[in-house]
Amino acid sequence: MLFREQAEALIELVQSAPLSEEQLSTDLDFQQSLAQLFTLIPYGQLMLEEAQLDQTSGEVIDVIFEWLVRDFSAYAIELLGKASSTDAQQQWALSAVRKPIIDRARDEQIYAEVRALADAYVMAG
User: Fold this and answer.
1) Cα angle 115, 121, 123; round to 5
2) Which of 10, 11, 14, 62 is deepest in the core (most CB within 10 A)?
3) In the chain, what are the domain boundaries?
4) Cα–Cα distance between 96 and 77 in angstroms, integer?
5) Cα–Cα distance for residue pair 24/26, rounded to 1 Å
6) Is 97 helix (H, G, I), strand (E, B) or coil?
7) What is the pTM of this model?
8) Which residues lie closer than 8 Å to 103 by C-beta, 6 or more apart?
9) 57 φ, ψ to 5°?
10) How far is CA 10 from CA 51, 60, 61, in A?
């Protein structure tokens, strides 16, 4: 849900605070931060598609999206600080930041599953 809000906010950025000619043509630093934001969206979609095929648990999916929300927020803050960001883009960046849902019990459960896999893989020699 939070990540979807961020994805929809990215559409709003393009519509309400479009890139200036300078940002489009010469500001590679700004473009890189924006590209990071855009890249997270299809990455999240691919994660969901693969999780469905692999029947990945909801807890694992939640952890993955917890990190996608964190990454999106970090890139939004990065965009905020770019030299060429406009006032509208800066306002958007602040509005796109979300705190992920943190569930300590879920995290402990996932960590226990990962610990149980220790030494389970043996490289074929």
Assistant:
1) 150
2) 10
3) 2-116
4) 9
5) 6
6) coil
7) 0.87
8) 62
9) -65, 150
10) 24, 25, 22
Q: What is the mean pLDDT of residues 90-94?
A: 96
**In this structure, which amino acid lies at residue 69?**
V
Burial grade of 80 (CB within 10 A; 0-12, 13-18, 19 or more): middle
State pLDDT tens for residues 7-23: 999 999 999 998 989 89
Tokens of 74: 């970090």
Instruction: List Cβ neighbours of 30 (8 Å cut-off, separation of 6 or more).
Output: 19, 23, 79, 82, 83, 84, 85
